[in-house]
Amino acid sequence: MSIPIDEKNEPINEGQYIEMANHLKETYDKISEKLFRSEIINMELKKEIMTAYGLIRIIDNIVDHLQEVPHEIVVLVECLRGHLSDTIDKEIFNIKDNVEEIV
Predict the structure, then answer these.
(1) Nearest CA-CA partner of 14 in 27, 28, 24, 3
(2) How many domains does the chain have?
(3) For residue 50, is it within any domain?
(4) In 3D, which of 77, 86, 38 has the Cα closest to residue 56?
(5) Is 8 among the domain residues?
(6) Can you give the pTM of this predicted structure?
(7) Which of 17, 60, 68, 70 has the greatest number of C-beta atoms within 10 Å?
(8) In the 8-state DSSP scheme, what is residue 103?
(9) What gap in Å lies between CA 98 and CA 49, rounded to an integer?
(10) Which residues are bridge partners to 5 per DSSP?
C-alpha cells in the first residue's frame, strides 16, 4: 500500500485527511443543493409549458368554431400549438425527433 503524499511530496497526516474529507463533504452538499434547486425549477417550468399548451389548445378549438377570424391569427395559433406540442414531446415525455435517435 502506498502512502499518499501532498503537493510538497510529504506524507498526508490524519488531520489533513479529515480536512480533505470535510472539504469534499461541503462541496458535495453545495452541488447537491444546486441540483435539487435546478430540479425544482425544471419541474415548475415543465408545469408552465403544459399549462400554456392546454390554453393554446383551448384557443385553437375556439378559433376553429368562430367565423371571420383573420387567417394570420389562425396560423399563429396553429404554429404555437405545434411548437408547444414538440416541446412537450421532447422536454417532458423525452420523445426523440426520429426513430434513429432512439436506437
Answers:
(1) 3
(2) 1
(3) yes
(4) 77
(5) no
(6) 0.71
(7) 60
(8) -
(9) 22
(10) 11
Rounded CA gap, 83 and 103, in Å? 24
Grid cell of 19 as nine digits: 480536512
Q: Give residue-wise pLDDT tens across range 6-64.
A: 677 777 788 888 998 999 999 999 999 999 999 999 999 999 999 999 999 999 999 99
Tell whether 2 is covered by a domain: no
* Residue 73 pLDDT class (50, 70, 90 cuts): very high
Q: Which residue has the higher pLDDT, 100 or 88?
A: 88
Residue 5 DSSP SS3: strand
Helix (H) or strand (E) holding 67: none
Structural domain span for residue 74:
14-102
What is the grid cell recorded at 12? 498526508
35 residue type, one letter: L
Q: Where are the alpha helices (DSSP H) in 1-103?
A: 14-65, 71-91, 99-102
